[in-house]
Structures are given as C-alpha cells and as structure tokens.
Amino acid sequence: MPIAEKDVKLLWGRAAGYCSNPDCRAKLSEIGANGDSFLTGEQAHIIARQAGGPRGQAGGGSDSYDNLVLLCPTCHTRIDKSPEGTYSVETLLDWKKQHEAWVDSMSKSKKMTNTAELMSYLVGLLDENKYYFDTYGPKSEIAEKNPASSAHAIWAARKFDVLLPNNRKIVRSLETNAELVPEEMKAAVLKFKDHASSYEQNQYGRLDFYQLFPTDFAQLACKWAAQ
User: Fold this and answer.
1) Using CA atoms, how far apart are residues 122 and 222, in angstroms rounded to an integer?
2) Where are the domains of the chain?
3) What is the reported pTM?
C-alpha cells in the first residue's frame, strides 16, 4: 500500500527537504543539467513494514508519518544495511525529533533595531518567494504554456524547502519585533499571518478556502523598507 499523500507532505514539510541524519542534512531536491527538477530524498520506515526487515517488529510498521523519517539515499542504504542494533528505532526517532527542532529553529528571528531594518529583511524573503512563484508556480508562463513541463515538480519542491520556511521566518520576525510594525500595517500583518498558517495547512490537506497572499502586505513592507 503506497504512503498517503498527506503523510508524504507532512514528512517533507517538517523536514524542510533535508536529510534527517544530523551528521548529514543533505538537501534533497536538485535541478539537473537540462533544467528538470528531481527529488533525491527517501521516505524511510523507522520500523520496517515487514517483521523481518530492518528494525522489524511483530506485525510490521505502518506507512504513516509517525513511522517515517526523511533520509538521503546514502544514509538510508547505510542504516538499513548496517548490522542489527547499529541504528535503533530510538536513534531514528531521536534524529527525526532533533531535525524537526533544527528546522523550526531556522525560522527563529532576532531583534531588529528599527522598522526599516525589519522591513528590509521581510522584503528579501518575500522577493525570494515571489521569484519561485512567478517562475514555476501554477500561474507562471512555463506552467501555463506547457503543463507537462517540470515546473510543477520544481514548484512542489520549492514550496516545502523555501516558501513555507520563509513564511515562518516572516511571521516570527513580526512577532519578535511587534513594536516596530507601523500602525498602518497591522491589518495587513494579520492577513499575512492568516495566509501563512492556512496556506501551510492546505499543503498537508486540502482546505475548502484559505487566505490568499495579501499584496498590500508586500507593498507596505517595501514602502517602510525605503524609509
């Protein structure tokens, strides 16, 4: 039985597209010489699906997010081919926990000294998101002209390893530096926070509706960055 799409997205999203081995942390998406995007990560079972497999137990392990860890092919192969007990279930669970904490820490924000500094930082993240959306997103020229192109695969990868982490960084920066947010931006900030939260939730399980990106937030951030 294949791993459910929701579990795959949760795994990739919470690992931010990096190998969960703390001594590796290789990025698991690449763009080939011909411009095609491809994923190199593997959804490894912590407890093998079959009782006789690596770290196997009676009844076997499930295909759910809780029993999966994202690894690069090298780490996956080495772990599964190592003598029994070299990499225990507890070790892999600890790697996964540590890695997701590391991903979460990447979005932590520092205190800024003034509004212009805060907004300049936000604009940089917004510009990076916009570049990938404009170049590979569902409304991009390449996606609309050639639905069979690799744009969809590239966009799917960039959502998890760039856009979602950037959105978290923006939200945390706004929360850490709330006193530097101009009064005229506060309504737009609320809309952006709603967008970031619901957009991420939509990646893991389709919502009937979610807050679209508020363009006034980006416009105001650019205005105040130039002050």
Assistant:
1) 9
2) 5-106, 115-225
3) 0.70
